[in-house]
# Entry
Amino acid sequence: MSTPNRTVEHYVSKKPFDPFSIEALTPEQEKYYLASQWQLMWLKLKRHKIAMISAAILLFSYVTCIFTEFISPYNFNTRNTQRIFAPPQSVHWFHEGEFKGPFVYGFKFEMNMTNLKREYKVDTGSVYPLRFLCSGDPYMFWDLFESTFHLVCPAKDGYFFWLGTDRLGRDMLSRIIHGARISLTIGLIGIVISMTLGIVIGGIAGYYGGPIDNVIQRIIEIFRSFPELPLWMSLSAVLPVNWSPILVFFGITVILAFLDWTSLARAVRSRLLALREEDYCTAAQFMGARPRRIIGRHLLPGFMSHLIASATLSIPSMILGETALSFLGLGLRPPITSWGVLLNEAQNINVVALYPWLMLPVVPVIVVILAFNFFGDGLRDAADPYK
# Structure
């Protein structure tokens, strides 16, 4: 049985093909071929799912640092002397089969004289509904104005300790949120100082080379020959004890920054040694451009993406440095609050064994460090032109 002939439509363009014409590109090809360096980085980074999740975690963490006082249920120094070492409270929605909205049950307290442990039992007869966008503990927002407005507050005659309380009856959740502002900020300020030193010193060594490069490399080797943690400890110990918490904060930041610039300086130096021989750099020299302009306008933009990736991977080391120093009692000190200060208060193993929620500040440290590392890996892969 024969089939009737059918005319098949021809969808291929009959125009002459010009591979260098924009019209010859598909929309997907046009998006990639005509994209700038930063657009290519963004397109690559979006395909790295773990890096994007990590970026969202970091963005959320830094946004909470701006509104710390508003997000915290309590002021970080507010004490509840009747609820010392209170365990974390669970948030419930139904009470005896009836919907009550978010609420917590109260506690019944008694002292165990055998192990001297404060024992709390849930009192299902005490129902404390949570309040949202409410008036609570007074605070100074960024030391600019006083307010009592909070995202969530306990009931007016109750309490809300989602992560428990410490030895002074202070809410652990509020203190962790306030500690995030110091621990996360110290990494950003430190990396600005560190990047400035690394780019300037590494740029001078890589551009000029010769004796200048040799002197700078020997200085870098001296810095890197010292063991890191003992050097941190010795420099932190010389900070005057009568300094205010703010001065101690900036002192620790400068110490961490001055000891972290060496690796970045070597990376900048190695890149400039290669790029200074390129034709566009030689042309700029022949046209009379100054070294500062050649380095800043022609050489550094060529690998700025790699510098950003390196900086992203360096921030976790500064956060860990501050946490370690504060944990050892040589960094930030109360009344200032950071994750390291909170962990310093949980050094007694007997206390931790009885009240394990005092170790909860280590959780945000681990999450943020992993997020920075995953995001830095994704950013480094996105900045690599050969991937």
Observations:
- The chain has two domains: 89-160, 174-383.
- The chain is about 55% helix and 15% strand.
- Residues 174-383 form a domain with the MetI-like fold fold (CATH 1.10.3720.10).
